[in-house]
Amino acid sequence: MWGRCLDAILGQMAREAYGSALPLYQCAIDWPAFFQDFPAPDVFEQTVYRWPRQRLRQLQERRFLQVMQAGWNNPFYKTRWTAAGVQPGDVKSLADIVRLPSYTSDDVKQSQLDAPPFGDFHGLNQHDLAHTPFKLQTSGGTTGQPRAMLSDPIAWEVQALAGARSLYIQGARPGDVMQIPATCSLANGPWLQYKACHDFLGVLPLTTGSGVVMSSRTQIETAMRFGTNLWNAFPEYLLRLAQAARDELGIDVRSLGTKFIRSYLGPDLQGLLRRELQETWGCPVYDIYGSNEIGLGAFECTHQRGLHIMEDCVFLEVVDVETGEPLLMGQKGNLVATVLFRTRPPIIRYNMRDLGRILDDQPCACGGHFARMDHFLGRSDAMVKLRGVNVYPMACLSAVKAEAATTGEWVCIVERVNAGGVPRDEMQVQVEVRGDIAHDPEALKLRLARRLKEDLGVVVTVVLVGAGGLAELANTGGREGKARRLIDRRPDYIDTSNN
Ligand SMILES: [Zn+2]
To answer: 406-419 and 486-488 as β-strands: parallel, antiparallel, unpaired?
Structure first.
């Protein structure tokens, strides 16, 4: 196993080196082996990042087989794979990966409900937990229990290193100062940003916390005092900071001389949000994509032509939102991730239900050969069971887009109504219409209802709302990036839209 993160070795090393019987983190990783497998950012940029794709594939294959082995030793995967008729040895390479069933956050949640707190998904026992220094992070679920995700030392370090590599390629260098206005909580992002700077780059991290911990005005004063020249923050907060600088301190944030900013641009396909941020701050803004399970999955290089997938760390597939069938390069669907550095637990064919598209795997002007994907295109919501039928709110897309009079935005609202003493689930589809195209509302509603019945398989009620009318409800204002296509108001529903 890469990096040799093994409990037995760990215990023995600690005893020999320090006379301690504790699971010291210092001894949890064989560092020379670690850096051989996962080179430091500057070495990586000159080597693995530029390897011919065939050589990269060989590396992926090797790591994938190690991960598969861990999968067969994990009850969550073993049960699912066996039920799908897969036998050990059936999946010999990444070409066979489609034989494995994918799973979603719902499956992980169920596993953790059945065997709290970590579920058979983690496949860990008390001995493991007492002998390995794990780091716990959770998903950001707003309702229901957030999913727990443990990282063993290798997984924790590789995630931070992946962030450092991307920062290096974007131009971060030792001596830079990066401000991280986010709180190191159970969300992994701020921790990994801090570690990337501190552990792997020689960049000074300023973990200033979110606006709750430090006001926007103080954030700017801190940046001026310590010479912040890099930021990692959400778009809306960057705009808020610029406003605070102007209104409360009378300064233009461009005077800070920022080198570049990393942010989460979401489905900013026309580049409008990026332009606004770049003009406001006077520096390049690079998009990144990641999750609780995969860490940093993709990042933009200085050419801003798609996000390079961190391919030696994660193998990304794109599958059809409804059928789960693999899609070709350029086609849009759900991103399915297999993490190539995690074994406890492994992440194998995890359907993140994030919409994406792989753009191409041609060499980039930055020198990298890692494939590029589009911006995160939005969230394909969980399937909803309606009167016994599996309904995909995303399946409204074609019907809504086909009508020129709509803005292309919609949201499905599911409610339990009382139909003569019998509870009945009803779905309403609210569709935004443009103000500048003449149409007959009743005829439009009729056409939409007919087409939606065909596409969804259930009868729905169509309600038309004015342009922008769903900005709040469907979160289509653009800033947060995750459009909401389903609002389930039934009493027993657990919201999974904010994973
Ligand atoms: Zn590039």
So the answer is: parallel
